[in-house]
Amino acid sequence: MAGYSYLRPRKSVTLTALLGFLVVYSLLPLAWMFFSITKTQSELLSSFGLWFSGPFALVDNLQQVITHDDGIFVRWFLNTIVYVVVGAGGATLLATAAGYGLAKYRFRGRGAVFATILGAIAVPGTALAVPTFLLFSQVGLTNTMWAIILPSLVSPFGLYLMWVFSAEAVPTEILEAARVDGSGEWRTFFTISLRLLAPGIVTVALFAIVATWNNYFLPLIMLNDPDLYPLTLGLYQWLADASGIGAQPVFNLVITGSFLTIVPIVIAFLLLQRYWQSGLSAGGVKA
Amino acid sequence: MSPFLVVFALMIVTPLAYSMYLSLFRNQLMGGTTFAGFANYVTALTDPKLWDGAGRVGLFLVVQVPIMLLLALVAALAIDSGRLHGRSFFRVALFLPYAVPGVVAVLMWGYMYDDRLGLTATVNDLVGFALLDPYTKRWILTAIGNIVTWEFVGYNMLILYSALKTVPHEVYEAAAIDGAGQFRIVRSIKLPAVRGALVIATIFSILGSFQLFNEPNILKEIQPALISSYYTPNIYAYNLTFAGNQVSYAATVAIVMGLVTAVIAYVVQLRGTRREA
């Protein structure tokens, strides 16, 4: 190919169209949801899924979701926020401190710690959940908020990301220079390292937030008081109500509630994309 | 550092040790809990329900994971090639499903599969016969596979794409000067560059397949007749604990499946890294 430049290749309509199919697939359920939240219960059951139909019922649906069962949905929303802020926030703090420590300080048993943590990434979360439940029930922690928060605090994958990221983003020479200049370790961490680590921290935080926001299995086994449910478990409850035998069908509640559940997390992803994309590529997932 | 280790020990090491301890006992309605040695393990190895579920997730793994990773690889290569119109749109749009909670994903697809609420009736009317029939014994596993693929294709794409971005531009320039075409560059530079990331993505997908729980367990609310109480090993362990009160045996099932998973993941890693060397 004469005059071909790799850095500025020609755009290909065929390739764009081909990948377009994949995007349509990715967005199809979200489009279906978008149209469905504007429909009444009866229109939901009788109209074509990918277009508007009947009276515009979005406002009414939203109102029903928020007021159903004395506003339990709002309660679930606030619970989720608590789980995310304390659980995911704590997980990010711990992973950052530990990953940075492992990457920048040498100490005895460092290799063993690394091997154990890599092994822990491979332990299925669901395999831990049942014994954790049994342990918690012995100390009376089940059916409390702590039952969700405590297990969320550990993120071996987050620690791994922070480790690799710290090793690359914070040059050891800078730390040594700071030490020579008489800066204490804490001061160095807060004034120098923290800034360099920011994209990595945002990435870890975002993944921890998604994991906590979307958690379903842990609340399912730990909680039986609906007042403590996060959104996911609440929606599951409504789904069960909508499809059980002799149930009151609340399809419009389930669908509109689902929509409200994904809106905040999708917005967070879109707003922070610059960070998580650079955080991941700057060292995140290298074998 | 040390706070992490404390929480880590409490939340991961302790439950693991505890479940190993539990697996050595037997729960009986009469007579309480007695020490049983490895009897639970003997039972598990010959338990048709457990192996029914294990076979199902094994089949799922062999079919769904390659399809998903192939789609992810094609997408990552296409986005990295720079030949797409609007490539940042593609990247974000494909990744978006990852942010959707599993419960909501299953809910949307579960309703879309439905004759009345969803799209299958529309498609079937269009072609004139029952082309799509997800809620049958025959197709339900495929229907679950579709949901899982939808959730994780973008995530895997991003992992592979990040690996592609670590290749320095000079390498491509040198290849172009040497007269290498698009496909040659993909084969000789890009595929070797993503091998490590592909091994990681494969291992995560294997772990995910063996843990399969959320999707079938939620679909069960919509289609109770199609998902049994031992549909996957995890559903089996869950039902043993909470419906059957057989905590010790549930712990044994979890450990056996954990070991099977670890062995398979280890083999994949060995093979993946050996070829690299």
TrEMBL record, chain A:
| Stored InterPro entries | MetI-like, MetI-like_sf
Indicate the segments forming the ABC transmembrane type-1 domain, all copies: 77-272
Location(s) in or outside the cell: Cell membrane
Q: What is its main location?
A: membrane
Query: Where are the membrane-spanning stretches?
Result: 12-35, 76-100, 112-134, 146-165, 196-216, 250-272
Q: Name one GO biological process term.
A: transmembrane transport
Q: Which domain of life is it from?
A: Bacteria
Database matches in CDD domains: TM_PBP2 (cd06261)
- Which GO CC terms are listed, alphabetically? plasma membrane
Which keywords label this protein?
Answer: Cell membrane, Membrane, Transmembrane, Transmembrane helix, Transport
Topological category with respect to the lipid bilayer: Multi-pass membrane protein
Q: Which PROSITE patterns match?
A: ABC_TM1
Classification via SUPFAM superfamilies:
MetI-like (SSF161098)
Q: Which family does it belong to?
A: Belongs to the binding-protein-dependent transport system permease family.
Name by which UniProt lists this protein: ABC transporter permease
Whose protein is this, by species?
Answer: Promicromonospora citrea
TrEMBL record, chain B:
Q: Per the UniProt record, which residue ranges are transmembrane?
A: 57-77, 89-112, 193-213, 247-268
Q: Which InterPro entries match?
A: MetI-like, MetI-like_sf, UgpAE/MalFG_permease
Instruction: Assign the protein's first listed, main location to one coarse class.
Output: membrane
Q: Which residues form the signal peptide?
A: none
Q: Where in the cell is it found?
A: Cell membrane
Q: Does the keyword Electron transport apply?
A: no
Q: How does it sit in the membrane?
A: Multi-pass membrane protein
- Tell me which Pfam families the record gives: BPD_transp_1
Q: Which domain of life is it from?
A: Bacteria
Q: Which UniProt keywords apply?
A: Cell membrane, Membrane, Transmembrane, Transmembrane helix, Transport
Recorded family membership: Belongs to the binding-protein-dependent transport system permease family.
This protein is called ABC transporter permease
Which species expresses this protein natively?
Promicromonospora citrea
